[in-house]
């Protein structure tokens, strides 16, 4: 991979976006039932579900992983982490935890799960570290 190569982006998949909305939607449906039975409590649950749903959507839309020519960058819970390529020692697939990056300082950082499959992200980062061109993710995969 040459230094002038374009960054490779991993963003949330459509199933991941939909799953981020399931719990708030279920809470919203439950709140409508409660709203019919108890007015104020139903409105409180409905308001909480609406806020939770909006937060889940915004969080899922902003999470991403970027393989730039000189750094690995990922955003999780509105915090962006940048790791220079030279500091990455290895990337492993942890059972039940997804892709994890080990740095030369001894830190282990979890890569956010975006619905691509942790093994796909791990393989792409390892290929990027070795200088090969990783497979590009498609918007709907």
Give structural notes:
With 141 residues, the protein is α+β, with helices and mostly antiparallel strands. It has helices at residues 14-37, 39-62, 118-130; strands at 8-11, 64-67, 71-76, 79-84, 88-94, 98-103, 108-110. The chain is 43% helix and 26% strand. The chain has a 4-stranded antiparallel β-sheet. The protein has a 3-stranded antiparallel β-sheet with strand order 5-6-7, covered by helices on one side.
Number of domains: 2
Low-confidence stretches: none
Q: Report how far the terminal alpha carbons are from each other.
A: 23 Å
In the CATH hierarchy, the architecture of the largest domain is Roll
Looking at CATH, which topology of the largest domain would you report? PH-domain like
Largest sheet: 4 strands, antiparallel
Order of secondary-structure elements: EHHEEEEEEH
Strand and helix map with partners:
Elements (H helix, E strand, L loop, with lengths): L7 E4 L2 H24 L1 H24 L1 E4 L3 E6 L2 E6 L3 E7 L3 E6 L4 E3 L7 H13 L11
Antiparallel strand pairs: 1-2, 2-3, 3-4, 5-6, 6-7
């Amino acid at each position: 991979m040459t230094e002038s190569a374009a960054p490779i982006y991993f963003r949330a998949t459509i199933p991941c976006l939909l799953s981020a909305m399931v719990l708030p939607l279920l809470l919203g449906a439950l709140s409508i039932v409660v709203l019919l039975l108890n007015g104020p409590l139903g409105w409180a649950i409905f308001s909480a579900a609406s806020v939770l749903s909006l937060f889940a959507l915004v969080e899922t839309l902003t999470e991403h992983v970027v393989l730039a020519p000189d750094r690995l960058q990922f955003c999780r819970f509105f915090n962006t982490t940048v790791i220079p390529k030279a500091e990455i020692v290895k990337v492993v697939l942890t059972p039940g935890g997804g892709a994890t990056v080990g740095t030369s300082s001894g830190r282990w950082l979890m890569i956010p799960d975006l619905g691509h499959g942790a093994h796909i992200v791990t393989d792409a980062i390892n290929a990027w570290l070795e200088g090969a061109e990783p497979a590009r993710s498609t918007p709907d995969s």
